[in-house]
Amino acid sequence: MGVCEKYYPKEAAAPSIKTEVVPGPVSKRQLEELSGRFDTRPAYFLADYDKSLGNYIADVDGNVFLDLYAQIASIALGYNNPKLMEVLSTPEFKSSIVNRPAMGNFPQKELSTIIGNILKVAPKGQTHVWSGLSGADANELAIKAACMYYMEKKRGGPKVEFSKEELTSVMENHAPGSPNLAVLSFKRAFHGRLFASGSCTCSKPIHKLDFPAFDWPHAEFPYYSYPQDPNADVNREEDDRCLKIVEDLIATWKIPIAALLIEPIQSEGGDNHASKYFLQKLRDITLKHGIVYIIDEVQTGVGATGKMWCHEYAEIEPACDLVTFSKKFQSAGYFFHDEEFIPNKPYRQFNTWCGDPARMIIAGAIGQEIQENNLLDQVNRVGDYLFSKLEALQTRYPQFFARLRGKGRGTFIAWDLPDGASRDLLLKKLRSSGCNVGGCSDQSVRLRPSLSFEEKHVDIFVNVLEECVSTL
């Protein structure tokens, strides 16, 4: 029995579109009503989650879509997963919801077990976790941890007390208490829409217009030629070009760089992959300069690439310092292994809730389901099958499948269309034909199905895709 049949014996056999256009009339009417109290301008349609199941999302018009976007890459096991539903009835979950512990001051008695379950699927080499509330929050917290760690090293270690000058100047947002430090990130990166994470984000102007940002550097992220095997030499040259830029920025930036933040695959920025060589060389550079190395696995983490954590493909040695997570884990935070990332004083890395134990319980259950059902094996098998089907379409329609990428990376697959207009038209056609698919960057299509996606879903999607592409 396949995992989809196990989880979802009543899952739809195929998409079903009942309206002439999407969104349909009910969606349009209810979205218009909702717009009086909520910004509905980005909405594709109004979802009916009670009727969504497995790999299919339903809307209020009765349309049922095969979902390859999964709440912007955030659904790990499919809609209304029965194993996760069972978690909702446990005393620990109910207590976490009703009592919402302020975990820093009043941790519940189950917290050690809750954290232990998350750490069972931690990235290799990581032994601790610090919890947050969202992907952007995870990156904000990691940046804060990196800066405190960096300054502690400069100060002489955790036992060195803060100076009087530090304690007074920080209240005026001045150095040395508020030091001038930078975080190096990459062009086309997306790390969130808050202040530190927004300063590291460099994918689209709309993500960060009108709010103050730190004057922090953005290096070049490699832009590879595909397919990769015949372009190995030119791609290595691209890696080395970008690595030199990183080194030059570290050497010349106007203030010290405390941390380097990178996605192993830039997702929002266009599904740009970093090679094993590039990620390891960055580790070498960060060690050489005493810079904290942060891997952002918010979108790439929790199995979609065929490993629990995408950067594990790079076998980075020694392990990177911090790994942030959210989305498919339904929780958020960062992993680390060096206990010196725990601040030297309480209340430095702190807020009222210090995460959400209810969501942490769900994260542990998701990790357990992935392990017990060998879902990483399935993702790799299905991803290979899907990629081969897309390669066949690329042969027939090369103009609409440029830079097909993600081979050997599970179902984390993307390709480019000639321009943004043709990409947007394809996404619209797909949705009207029963497949919910997302885009990224200006002209890319990205696939983000759940881990329960199977070959039968691939066949449905590829048939719909070919019909839509043939009419562009």
Automatic annotation (TrEMBL):
One of its GO terms (biological process) is gamma-aminobutyric acid catabolic process. InterPro entries: 4NH2But_aminotransferase_euk (IPR004631), Aminotrans_3 (IPR005814), Aminotrans_3_PPA_site (IPR049704), PyrdxlP-dep_Trfase (IPR015424), PyrdxlP-dep_Trfase_major (IPR015421), PyrdxlP-dep_Trfase_small (IPR015422). GO terms for cellular component: cytosol; mitochondrion. Keywords: Aminotransferase, Pyridoxal phosphate, Transferase. It catalyses: 4-aminobutanoate + 2-oxoglutarate = succinate semialdehyde + L-glutamate. The keyword Coiled coil does not apply. Its EC number is 2.6.1.19. GO terms for molecular function: 4-aminobutyrate:2-oxoglutarate transaminase activity; pyridoxal phosphate binding. Its cofactor is pyridoxal 5'-phosphate. Belongs to the class-III pyridoxal-phosphate-dependent aminotransferase family. This is 4-aminobutyrate aminotransferase. It comes from Huiozyma naganishii (strain ATCC MYA-139 / BCRC 22969 / CBS 8797 / KCTC 17520 / NBRC 10181 / NCYC 3082 / Yp74L-3). The lineage of its organism: Eukaryota, Fungi, Dikarya, Ascomycota, Saccharomycotina. The gene is KNAG0D03810.
